[in-house]
Amino acid sequence: MSGRPVPSATRAVIGGSGSLAAGLPADVHPDSTVLETGLVFDTPWGESPPFTLFELGGQRALHVAMHGWRKGVSRGRASRQVFSVLHRAGVRRILSDAGVGSLNRLLDPGDLVVVDDFVDMTTDRDRYGVVAGDHLLIMRDPVCPTGRQALLDAARRHAPDRRLFTRGTYVVTEGPRFESPAETRHLQMLGDVVGQSFCPEVWLARDIDACYAGLYLIVNYGEGVVRDWEHEVLARHFHEDAALVGRIVLDALAALPADADCGCRDLRKPTLLT
Ligand SMILES: [Zn+2]
To answer: pTM of the predicted model, to two decimals?
Structure first.
């Protein structure tokens, strides 16, 4: 089964904790048509996680749940499996989501943030492998401006009463645990939200010549930020907002222009190393 060829698709959704509790894509978007589910492919880094192939807005797209993470596979390896599949499918536009913690004290649980920058604080070198590996990856504008705008427009349509932040810096940590108060104070100097999924996805997307943007749902305060967070609040957002987050991401995916002049292609240059 896993020896099958990867079907062609131009778009992809890398689902995260923000949409995990919803049944993407079929249960959250009435116009999506699921073509195949449970698609597992061989990759140079082992068998991929299961993908769903679907059609939305006249485009074929792949969906993978929870960043492809699963027990027994390191996150770096899982990311390379996912991007190896997206690369072979010919995917050029990727949207993602995640539940994240706050670092900026202006943020509250339930807020939505479309970030435009990141700081990678991970140290696991296994996260640092590339898929294509033949280009210089420039991180001047790491997040696709067209993808960000599509997410912002869709969020305003579907959640007009939510606070929506149009920029921010995502600090990426290793997990699987949350941060200590002292770590949070340190990370507050670096960015606005903290989570574990943005890297390596953002630069693996550039590695395979695809655009990348994400929608982030605040599910807890960072330790020592504003006040102690509550598990019930985190669980409520995790469950009750999943369909909303999924709907925003899918609507944004459908709205993405086929040929946007976003500038991402100019930030990937042939490597000078041989
Ligand atoms: Zn782009």
So the answer is: 0.95
